[in-house]
Amino acid sequence: MKLQRFAILLMSGLAFTTLSSHASLVLGTGTGALIGGDLTDPENDGAADANVNYNASFNSSHEPFFGGGEGAFNVFDNILSPRNGKWCCNGPGTAAQDLSGGNLRSVWVEANFDDKRYVLNTFTLASANDVPGRDADQWRILGSNDGINYNTIFEYDNNGTAIWNARYQVVAFSSDMGDFAEQNMAYSIFRYEAYSVVNNSMHQLGEFEIFGQIPEPTSIALLGLGLLGLRARRKA
């Protein structure tokens, strides 16, 4: 399985590259470099041009559809190709933004798993086919449980430089690699949000894969036992 291949690469420490102080892992280029079987489509049977057979619902700031017209949801279709296999082209602009401030200009796309919550441990982003100037150079991966309040899981802020150096390049980020802190919060919504691009008026993205696990039931059980113990002490 591709996910097993990724685990082997991760354990071996091979194919690492440093991108603006982030120890990212370049998996290769093209559809075959995608890990596959992510949370949005574990069976890899989602339709390329329609919202069919996916394990999540989707939303976006612009172009909320699959297929023709380079819709935003194409980043979940397990395909890297021009036209129907990418998201393009509304953009947030090229000017560097202060990501610690408010009222940020952005474009975003997200997957919503409804009543299921996952702890994110790995994600991939793939470049699209068009000019590199449309690649994001300021972006975040965010998590939410209500679609209103979002927490930052990962932030990339390097105005003028993207994470990719080739077209259709798949780059993986993982808490196991130290790219972001090991998560202790489970989320039902995961969002990719871009705030500026390298040097173009438009924005593009080829693919966004999301990997994680449901929190361990033992943790929930231990929490319950702890609450019962606290309640017993209070009664005493």
From TrEMBL:
Coiled coil: none annotated. It comes from Aliiglaciecola litoralis. InterPro entries: Galactose-bd-like_sf (IPR008979), Ice-binding_C (IPR013424). The keyword DNA repair does not apply. SUPFAM superfamilies: Galactose-binding domain-like. The keyword Signal applies. Keywords: Signal. This is Ice-binding protein C-terminal domain-containing protein. NCBIfam families: PEP_CTERM (TIGR02595). Residues 1-23 form the signal peptide. Residues 213-235 form the Ice-binding protein C-terminal domain.
